[in-house]
Write a structure and sequence with these properties.
The protein is α/β, with parallel strands linked by helices. Helix content is 35%, strand content 17%. Strand 2 and strand 3 form a beta hairpin. The longest helix is centred in the first third of the chain and has 15 residues. The mean pLDDT is 94.
């Protein structure tokens, strides 16, 4: 788990950075549609760090990957596409630097003035980025006096720009990284108890490590989504033609045993919403007890009685970690349970009785759909990094900051 004492933040940098070059690792791997950014959340997340450093007189050099060019120079994946959107968000002039290491980047940086902001070319245009090549890390580090990592969502990758550079320059966490790590520390590192975790998603196989780790750290584990079907099947429930993983019933049994030994209560729904076909608002959708699922029906959401019981559980808790929806939330009416429980969690958070931390792509979309995201204590936009943190794994980008 994250130890907050282990790394420095922007507060530990000199107050006056006039003319000092600060390499900032951001995650600008944003989705594009028809040549335009379709979601600028990650750009916006980096603005406070960029603005603060620029205001202190630093020459701000931004490092990011963008897409999967696999070491090739791809114009459609050039970070030049991000210069104008970032300029609009920061209200400042942003320039493009045609490489992220080497003589060309060095020459461009040498012409920059205090307070200037530059986006360096896609780090993944260099084959050595994903291999964490020490020579590439050294060439990147040569551009800066300080290194700031503000990209938690890329912290699970040991790449040259996320891990290698941190060993070569005085290194600090940016404001977004700092907020993320503080939230995660509150959620599982050193949480107020009782702690509940909501874990949803289609398949147990993708969350086995998460579940195995959580049963030893939380008091209540709430299972939703398609994975709940596998847990129900392991308890002898007929799940009809629902999606479930027959070959993992033994693994699920082992999770039940470990939870019992650790004093963690696993919560499964006792009523569910079923339909004989998976489409929006099917005629045959009905709410039934888990023991009344017909052979030709599939479970697509948890039922209202189960949601009410889970709401009562959350009311007894002080901390909540949420990853994954409770049902097939993209297809109404199977979003009802996720929306209802998310709103309960949001209300408890606003009342001051619950610290709520959520993360993962589907989770963010589901909480936004419920209109609840803004009322959670913290919502992480990180996907893989958030999951690996929930698995209890060391994140190389964070570990490098701690060692620095």
């Amino acid at each position: 788990m994250v130890e907050l004492a282990g790394f420095k933040t922007l507060d530990d940098l000199p107050e006056n950075l006039t003319g000092k070059r600060v390499l900032v690792r951001v995650d600008f791997n944003v989705p594009m549609q028809d040549g335009a950014i379709s979601d600028d959340t990650r750009l916006r997340a980096a603005v406070p760090t960029i603005a603060e450093l620029s205001d202190k007189g630093a020459i701000v050099l931004l490092l990011s990957h963008f897409g999967r060019p696999k070491g090739q120079n791809r114009p459609d994946m050039s970070t030049a596409l991000l210069v104008k959107p970032l300029g609009e968000l920061t209200g400042r002039s942003v320039r493009f630097v045609e490489d992220c290491a080497g003589p060309q980047a060095e020459r461009a940086a040498s012409f920059m003035l205090p307070g200037d902001i530059g986006i360096l070319e896609n780090t993944r245009f260099h084959d050595g980025e994903e291999k964490n090549d020490p020579e590439l890390a050294k060439d990147m580090a040569a551009l800066g006096d300080y290194y700031v990592n503000d990209a938690f969502s890329a912290a699970h990758r040991a790449h040259a720009s996320t891990e290698g550079v941190a060993h070569l320059l005085p290194s600090f966490a940016g404001r977004a990284m700092e907020a993320e790590l503080k939230a995660l520390e509150k959620a599982l590192g050193n949480p107020e108890r009782p702690v509940a975790a909501v874990v949803g998603g289609a398949k147990v196989s993708t969350k086995l490590a998460v579940l195995g780790h959580l049963v030893g750290r939380v008091d209540h584990l709430i299972i939703g989504g398609g994975m709940a079907n596998t847990f129900l099947a392991a308890r002898g429930v007929n799940v009809g033609k629902s999606l479930y993983e027959k070959d993992l019933l033994g693994e699920v049994e082992s999770i039940f045993e470990r939870a019992e030994a650790a004093g963690c209560t696993i919560h499964l729904p006792y009523d569910v919403v079923v339909a004989d076909e998976f489409k929006p608002h099917p005629d045959g959708a009905r709410n039934v007890s888990i023991h009344e699922v017909a052979d030709d029906e599939m479970i697509l959401d948890i039922g209202p009685a189960a949601v009410e019981a889970l709401a009562d559980v959350l009311k007894t808790c002080r901390t909540l970690v949420w990853n994954g929806p409770l049902g097939a939330f993209e297809t109404p009416p199977f979003d009802a349970a996720t929306v209802a429980l998310a709103r309960v969690a949001a209300a408890l958070t606003q009342d001051g009785s619950l610290v709520s931390v959520a993360g993962g792509g589907d989770t963010v979309a589901a909480l936004n759909q419920a209109g609840a995201a803004q009322d959670f204590t913290f919502v992480s936009t990180a996907g893989g990094a958030f999951l690996e943190w929930m698995e209890g794994r060391t994140l190389p980008g964070v570990a490098a900051l701690e060692r620095a």
